[in-house]
Amino acid sequence: MWMIMAVLSAFFAGVTSVLAKCGIRKTDSDVATAVRTVVVFLFSWVMVFVAGSAGTVRDISPKSLCFLVLSGLATGASWICYFKALSMGDVNKVVPIDKSSTVLTVLLAVVLFGETEHLAVKLISTAVLGAGIYLMVEKKQEQAAEKDKGWMPYAVFSALFAALTSILAKVGISGVESNLGTAIRTAVVLVMAWLIVFMKGKQSQAGKIDGKELMFIILSGFATGASWLCYYYAIQNGIVSVVVPVDKLSIVVTVLFSYVVFSEKLSRKAFTGLLLMILGTVAMALWS
Q1: Of 58, 135, 194, 231, which is most buried with the most CB atoms under 10 A?
Q2: Please, are residues 247 and 6 in contact by the beta-carbon 8 Å criterion?
Q3: Dist CA 200 CA 27 (whole Å)
Q4: Average pLDDT, stretch 40-63?
Q5: What is the mean pLDDT of the chain?
Q6: How far apart are CA 66 and CA 224, in angstroms?
Q7: From the centroid of its chain, how far is CA 188?
């Protein structure tokens, strides 16, 4: 079941990137992030009450709560950087860099959680993943040589914070019902996102979002909520160093949708990189 959830997480995450890109063409990325977090927040808490786990809040240990909060802060930072990068660059440029968090997460899971079973497979698969990411990113950099690449630092920081998110969440969600853990983390992201909006004086823009873009922002929020619920069920019940790479296969969904929606095509070199990413992930899922 946790593997199925990891696959569903990848699908919804892939859809999220495309929907979000459609919603931030004219809308400020910080404002869009804050608005969509409201949707994710409501979605996650509805699932908590549907699952009947709201009453277990008082049973969460201080340690778990601390790590859930830290995970939420890392998630908020990753989101803010990610959607800022998306607002400045093409989906097919930003997403591969963001997915590089997979390599760091797998290595941290091996070191911190002792997930050393089938270690050789994990390390080889991770190397293949890294090679695939490099091929995709390198080509995208070449294509962007004459364009503004201000999006790149945001994409890199998004990847770093995303890696921290998975590790912190694994610790925090131990002994906590996955829907409830997701909802608590979302509350932290919500506060963080709106604090940034108010600190930058952008709150007035929230009421001026184009109707069509608002629809896409809301849909991306629902997709994110669904992805999170599936993802944190998977890492709670499965193997982190397997779940994370499978989740990162969302890049396949993103590439397909970005081709259809934005006409963003992959070069032969970048396509080879995508195939390597898929190969590394499938190998890790089958033999770990």
Answers
A1: 231
A2: yes
A3: 15
A4: 85
A5: 82
A6: 23
A7: 16
Distance of CA 21 to the CA centre of its chain: 14
Under the banding of pLDDT at 50, 70 and 90, the label for residue 148 is low
Q: Report the alpha-carbon distance of residue 256 to residue 92 in Å, rounded.
A: 10
pTM (2 d.p.) = 0.71
Cβ 144 vs Cβ 89: under 8 Å: yes
Amino acid identity of 249?
L
For the ranges 73-82, 176-185, 261-270, the maximum mean pLDDT occurs at: 73-82
Spatial contact of 8 and 225, defined as CB atoms under 8 Å apart:
no
Interacting residues of 58 by C-beta distance below 8 A, sequence separation 6+: none
Whether the predicted pLDDT of 138 surpasses 70:
no
d(CA 183, CA 180): 5
- Report pLDDT for 41: 93
Nearest to 82 by CA among 165, 11, 154: 154
In terms of C-beta density within 10 A (0-12 exposed, 13-18 middle, 19 or more buried), how is residue 30 classed?
A: buried
Nearest to 221 by CA among 70, 34, 53: 34
- Contact indicator for 245, 279 with CB cutoff of 8 Å: no
Instruction: Enter the DSSP assignment of 207.
Output: G
Residue carrying structure tokens 């890392």: 74
